[in-house]
């Protein structure tokens, strides 16, 4: 409820600010809505949103899967950790733009380069988060599972996974926002479609209503995913924690 | 080291177990410790805190293989263990904790165990919702549910207040007597050892070895306070000598 009121206040402030500004630089909510409607009617808006969402999903899943596996191995094995740690640090500190440009130069201006570059940007954050989770695993529960002869699968499902779930949720939350921002940059620089491409077009035309007509629906979709998927998942995995008195 | 077995006998011979200290030196924890128990017997290992009792339990449980000597555990046996802390999965209910450890246990068995241990009303509770005493009972239920051939109890009632510990000891004694397994109880509480064990092994300070063995007459119900005091005095005498 508070979140909704807060959003309404934001829109009102926007309206007031637009009233006192040049409508070309800061159009009001209604002007953006009109542009949004015409873009939606032509189908262009949905096509762009669909393409971008698909890229976000692919890059996100790739980074989470590979990053979790590497993070798990590093958390469990000191040798792997020492060997891979410098790579992770280099990757963490490499600017997203450098990775994107290099990917386009080396792999070409194609979908694989775009998605790979985004995933590579997100990868080290996932690795570090999951590694922290693995390091925090309770060895006493591991011993319990050993004494009671839990199978490896049972141990993973009932002992390890529940302990990693909060870290996985944190990596998901941080990852989604990071991935979608970088996807727009990748699209702006080297794809012929998607929200990032449309924003580039709007930039060339100095068309702020068009820019916002593409940016806002996408932000809204990410907000909905966060509220309807990420937060319920977090609540579900922490349901066993005793409520604070 | 080796872990092989005889179907009805536990035989532990730990010639040497050491830990490496921070300065790189090797500190002996157990030296020439041996004891044996037959099927149906309960043995109590009693000794000063920090003498290596928990290390010995980890060896018996198969969690530590880095020692000189041999451990003969019952072949094809199942191990049930109660650790010093309950070690329940906090994200699973009491019943799920029991069933995950003992997938083949029948509904009737679970119900009977929970009834004996006073857990019937707490089946669906998460461990975080249980009192300390109830969590220990849940850990006991899990250990018994696997129908162990070897039951390891590592100070299962430590840090419980005395009346609660006595109550749990009585419940545990009933359960132990109704099964025919080998039970090893580690404790520093003489009364607990006398209440539960058929044989009491008195351990020395570090590095631990057995300084004496005392057989407790059964049936315990007929044991007089006088007899209890005599055993306690013998344990004290052995401890002082060790």
What are the low-pLDDT stretches of chain B, counting only 5+ consecutive residues below 50?
Answer: none
Q: What's the SSE pattern of chain B?
A: EEEEHEEHHHEHEHEEH
Oligomer: heterodimer
Q: What are the segments of chain A in which pLDDT stays under 50 over at least 5 consecutive residues?
A: none
Order of helices and strands of chain A: HHHHHHHHHH
User: How large is the count of helical segments of chain A?
Assistant: 10
Sequence of strands across the biggest β-sheet of chain B: 6-7-8-4-9-10
> In angstroms, what is the radius of gyration of chain B?
18 Å
CATH topology of chain A: MetI-like fold
Backbone shape of chain A:
globular
How large is the radius of gyration of chain A? 22 Å
- Main beta-sheet annotation of chain B: 6 strands, mixed
Question: Quick one: CATH superfamily of chain A?
Answer: MetI-like
Number of structural units classed as domains of chain A: 1
Strand percent estimate of chain A: under 5%
Strand composition percent of chain B = 25-35%
Query: Largest interface, by Cβ-Cβ below 8 angstroms: which chains and how many residues each?
Result: A-B, 17 and 24 residues
Quick take:
Chain A has 10 helices and no strands. Chain A is an all-alpha fold and 245 residues long. The two termini of chain A are 23 Å apart.
How does this structure look, described?
The complex is a heterodimer of chains A (245) and B (242). Chain A is mainly alpha-helical and 245 residues long. Chain A has a single domain (46-237), classed as MetI-like fold (Orthogonal Bundle), CATH 1.10.3720. Chain A has helices at residues 2-19, 29-42, 44-76, 78-93, 96-107, 111-135, 139-147, 152-190, 195-205, 208-237. Chain A starts with a helix and ends in an 8-residue tail after the last helix. In chain A, 34% of the residues are buried. Chain B is an alpha/beta fold. Chain B has 7 helices and 10 strands. In chain B, a hairpin with a 6-residue loop joins strand 9 and strand 10 (210-215). The mean pLDDT of chain B is 85. Chain A binds chain B through residues 140-141, 143-144, 146-150, 154, 158-159, 162, 237, 240-242, and chain B through 58, 61-63, 78-81, 83, 85, 87, 89-92, 100-102, 126, 128-129, 142, 146, 152.
